[in-house]
Write a structure and sequence with these properties.
The strands form 2 sheets. A 4-stranded antiparallel β-sheet has the order 1-8-3-6. It has a single domain, classed as Sandwich (Jelly Rolls). It is about 35% helix and about 25% strand. It contains 4 helices and 8 strands, in the order ααββββββββαα. It is globular and about 50 Å long. The longest helix has 30 residues. It is an alpha+beta fold and about 150 residues long. This is Cyclic nucleotide-binding domain-containing protein. InterPro entries: cNMP-bd_dom, cNMP-bd_dom_sf, RmlC-like_jellyroll. Pfam families: cNMP_binding.
């Protein structure tokens, strides 16, 4: 659940960009067990966790969804909002009561277009999150489904 330093929002964004982004966030809360989004649905918002946890999961044919990673304080929930066609690549649900900041994706994309420096900073942060999540998904799926004794990563 502890994000590497570069994926945690306060460490990833310079103060001025962080403050600018936070000005358009709104505080939301969800009880445990709420689905925030489903894989394949339209990605029109994202969240930064204040308190609580969110489990990211991926559909696995013939099995129940596999939890890839649990996210907590200051972590970004959702990245698909930044890249066309704006469709979620994973699913997400609260695994404990959640308090978060919610952001309208279209508004943040407009901010990125209007201010290229802000846009580069947001894109770099989200790219680091995507890279981290890809590695987490790979590791988790190998843990769950690789044949026993198949060896480590090559």
């Amino acid at each position: 659940m502890n994000a590497p330093a570069t994926t945690s929002m306060p460490r990833a964004l310079p103060a001025a960009h962080r403050e600018r982004l936070m000005r358009i966030g709104r505080e939301v809360s969800f009880p445990e067990g709420v689905r925030l989004f489903e894989e394949g649905s339209h990605a029109d918002r994202f969240w930064i966790v204040r308190t609580g946890t969110v489990d990211l999961d991926i559909r696995v044919p013939g099995r129940r969804a596999a939890v890839i990673e649990s996210l907590g304080h200051n972590e970004l929930v959702g990245w698909s909002w930044l890249f066309p066609p704006y469709v979620w690549h994973l699913g997400a649900g609260t695994s404990s009561p959640l308090r978060a900041y919610e952001f309208d994706a279209a508004a943040v994309r407009r901010m990125c277009e209007d201010d290229p420096e802000f846009g580069r900073t947001i894109a770099r942060w989200v790219a680091e999150v995507v890279a981290h999540r890809l590695q987490a998904a790979r590791t988790r799926l190998l843990d769950l489904y690789a044949p026993y004794g198949s060896g480590g990563l090559r």
